[in-house]
Specification:
By secondary structure, the protein is mainly beta. It contains 1 helix and 3 strands.
């Protein structure tokens, strides 16, 4: 976990515990993906990694008692 940014912005530290709310990113270090411009949701499409195979992949998120998986 990264606690430094939360400290810098004066945000409370987050704990993962049974019964608490969680916002978790599900990440695979074994999956790879090709970064394609049409998949970038930002209005800014200037990324030097477009068209390259990248190591690791966001598989989804768990937030507010909902699971959102990428296709």
């Amino acid at each position: 976990f990264s606690t430094g940014p939360r400290t810098i912005f004066g945000l409370p530290q987050i704990k993962i515990a049974k019964g608490s709310k969680a916002g978790i990113t599900i990440f695979s270090t074994e999956a790879n993906h090709m970064l394609q411009e049409q998949n970038i949701q930002s209005l800014s499409k200037n990324n030097p990694f477009i068209g390259q195979q990248l190591n690791g992949k966001i598989m989804g998120i768990a937030h507010h008692n909902q699971l959102h998986l990428n296709k």
